[in-house]
Amino acid sequence: SCVHLSSLQVLVSNALASISGNKENFIYCNYLNISVCPLTESASTFMVILYNPLGRRVSWNIRLPVKGAAYSVTDPNGQTVLNEVGRDRGDATHELIFPASAPPLGYSSYTVLKTASRDLRSRLAKRIREQAQPRVDAWSPREIQNEHLQVLFDPVTGLLREIQNLDKSISLPVSQNFFWYNASIGNDDSAQASGAYIFRPNRSEPFRVAGRARTYLVKNKLVQEVYQNFSSWCSQVVRLYAGQAYVELEWTVGPIPIDDGLGKEIISRFETSLQTDGRFYTDANGREILERRRDYRATWNLSQTEPVAGNYYPVNSRIYIKFQLTVLTDRSQGGSSMVDGSMELMVHRRLLYDDNRGVGEPLLEPGVYHDGLVVRGRHLVFLDTVESSAYQHRLQAQQEFMAPQLVLAPGGGPSFHRGQRNLKQFSALKQELPPSVHLLTLAQWDPSSILIRLEHQFERGESANGSQPVTVDLLHLFSSFTITSLQEMNLVANQKREAMNRLSWRPATGAARRQPYPPLNPLGVTLQPMEIRTFLATIRYAGPSGGQGEL
């Protein structure tokens, strides 16, 4: 809720002030997804603080709405950062783009200063805008490319046509478009309507939003983008940042029109020529990957009565078909593979009838202007070999779920502690965690104890590098405190692990075996694939004299 979000932001502001040494007026721009941020649009100088909640260093591309034509950006070490001022979005006249990074479980502060305006023609010399033509022409295919990927577009329709992985020398013809299912209001087979709890289209084949998209292309040193406009209520930006190993699709859908009296359920569909035998894969709450088979259940003979809805599954963070083409989501969505070689994800719905499942009204959200809800989201598309894909999508999905958070400030605030210097970069870890290990929990237990959970985020056998056992030195991991004693607990931290008494099962063959728990060594805590280990640590804070401040 808004109240909880506000309380959390106050907590973060207090922590930043204590660690950084500055009593800034920290600002959170909650509407950056629609390019609204009063501070960046009005100030001639400001600070951008990037907080990273992960246990490894991350890089992030920052986009801020601004009204100036030229800016300088400096990192925590005072070095100049390459930036671009791009096309206008929202109420701002321009958009500032620059790459940033933050240390593990820490933050980095960047300083932005508006500079004297330069000639926009020279400033954006490499910016290319091309309007899609509604005719067949002998143009070269539109494309965007970086060090790792090349993405091709059909010059006539403006739609995605092919993705090439330049590192692996593999390519795959891929088309992507938006479709809508006509929501059922009930029929002779069933009176069940599609609604808030029920997805039930009235036919198996969806309708295209548009057969082609009007497009233009934008290129600069940091990012290449193809803007696609499918209709007055459906658009998308296909984006490649420099050094990025995936294609980013940022879609904007809504308000969904209902003047024709039809409820609509909008999907983004990817189509290839791959023969996948009805098989596709989705995650279970971001952890284990489950194989799905169209019109099939492993434990009973399925009599399919809903050919579309009966093949939809929850997609919490990713869906893929093996070649491998993987799509990461930024939120939980419904997804399926209705035809071999295809994947689809539901991005928006607007319905006219109640499904009689308890809400008592149709899914007809009015939105800000009372003409329907507008949603914006991102899909990240990876093309790689089956052997290499897990390492890519595991790490990126985790970074999307625990994305770096932006905090802004005007700069120049008074010192938090007299004589304390302004700390522009901080990490609560002395060293990064291995890529396969996630710091799942770091929480205060009592004034002198903390709860720690470490998670191995790879499954056994899915990655040659990521699926190996990993050992972590917990005793020397943290910079803000010293661990004086460590006790391993069960998963929910209400019992010592050594005191656990599990049920003994009689195997079908052979003798029952119980693995004794090895003695705990804080200098070498080993995690097996998919394992979560929980620890209760007694600690002593380093304090101001330790040079790190308090956690």
UniProtKB/TrEMBL annotation:
One example GO MF annotation: carbohydrate binding
Pfam families: Glyco_hydro38C2 (PF17677), Glyco_hydro_38C (PF07748), Laman-like_dom (PF21260)
GO cellular component: lysosome
A GO biological-process term: mannose metabolic process
Entries under SUPFAM superfamilies matching the protein: Galactose mutarotase-like
Family annotation (InterPro entries): Gal_mutarotase_sf_dom, GH38_C, Glyco_hydro_38_C, Glyco_hydro_b, Glycosyl_Hydrlase_38, Man2a1-like_dom
Lysosomal alpha-mannosidase-like central domain location: 80-112
Occurrences of domain Glycosyl hydrolases family 38 C-terminal (ranges): 437-535
The name this protein goes by in its record: Glycosyl hydrolase family 38 C-terminal domain-containing protein
The organism of origin for this protein: Gopherus agassizii
Lineage: Eukaryota, Metazoa, Chordata, Craniata, Vertebrata
